[in-house]
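Our preliminary data section would be incomplete without showing what the modeling component actually yields. Below, a chain of 354 amino acids is followed by its predicted structure, encoded as C-alpha cells that our downstream tools consume directly.
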Amino acid sequence: MLRIVPYKTIATIACLMFLLFAQSIASAQEAGVSISPGVIEETLDAGTLHNFEIEIQNLHSAPQQYFLFTRNIRSVGDGGVPIFADDWEETGYELAAWINLSTDSVFLQGGETEVVKFTLEVPKGASPGSHFGGVFVSADPPEMENSGAAVGYQVANILSIRVTGDVVEQASIRQFSTGKFIYSAQDVDFNVKIENNGNVLVRPAGPLVIHNSLGKRVGELTFNESRAGVFPGKTREFADVNWIGDGAGFGRYEAILSPVYGDQGAYKTMSNTVTFWILPLNILGPALGALAFILLVTIIGVKLYVRRALAQVNAGRRMIRRKGQGGSSATLLVIVSVLIVLALFLLVMLVLFA
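Predicted structure:
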C-alpha cells in the first residue's frame, strides 16, 4: 500500500537534513592544525648551525597524521601575506634547503600537541642579507601538494634569517598621500607605500605629525606600530593609516611622515610631506550665505541709487549737469561697493583658512 507523506512532513525532514548538513560543514571547518611560533627571526653568521623547535597542535577532535616540509618565500602579497615559491623556483633569498627537519610527519590525537625540532645550517658561501622560508604542516603529503591534488588543510610559519656581512639597508617612501584633497572633518585617511631597495627586511615605523596652517601641532600617530616588514626589492602599501582629530578643524593642514628603520644604534630616517584641506560645511555654509546676502544687498542698493539719480535728472533740475554727476556718482558707488564686497570676502577667507 502506497502511503502519501504530508507536505509539512517532507518540509520538516528537509529542514532537518539541511541542519545536519550545515552542522557537518561547520564541524569540517573547525578541523585544522596550528603551528607556533608563527614567525622566527634570527641573525646568523655564514657557516653556522642553529637549533630551533616548533609546536604543532591538532585542533580537531579526531586523530590525524600531518606531514612536514619546507618552502622558500619569493614575495609578499597585499597586506603582507607571504607568497611561497614552488620547489623549482629561485627567489634569490632561498632558505628551505638550509633546514633539516627531525621528522617529516607526526601523528596526533584530537587536541594533542607535539614539539618538532629542526636545525638550520647557513652555508659558508651564503649571501649576506635576509633569507626567507617556512615550515609547512599539511594534512596531505608533499607529493600531493606539488601535484595540485591536495584536498586537506595546511599552515606554515615564517622564517626570516639575516646573514651577517655586507648588508644593504636602503628604503624610501614611494608614496605618501591622502584619500581625498578636501575633508569635511578631522577624519583623514593616509596612503603610504614603502620601497625596500636593500637586501634585508626592513620594518619602518615612526611618527606621523599633523600641523594646521598656523604651524601648530594638532595631531600625531605612530605609523606601522605593529612593525610590519617590507620584503627586499619590493614595495609594500600601508593603507590602514587614519587620523581622527578632537575638533571640527578648518583650513589647510600639513602631515609629515618620518619613519625610521635599521638596526638599533644605526637607525636611518626617511621623511615625506602631504597637504590637505578641511572645510567643514557647518562653518563654510553660513559664511558663504552671509557673503551672498551682502552681495545681494549691495546690488539692490546700487540699483535704488541709480533709479533715484535718474528720477532727479528727469525732473528737469539742471538736466545736463545732473546727468553727468549722477552717472559718475553711480559708477563711483558701484566701484566702492565692489571693493567692500571683495574686502568682506577676503575677510571671510582669512577667518576660515587662517
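The two ends are 93 Å apart (CA to CA). The chain has three domains: 34-163, 171-279, 283-353. Preliminary results of this kind motivate Aim 1 of the renewal.
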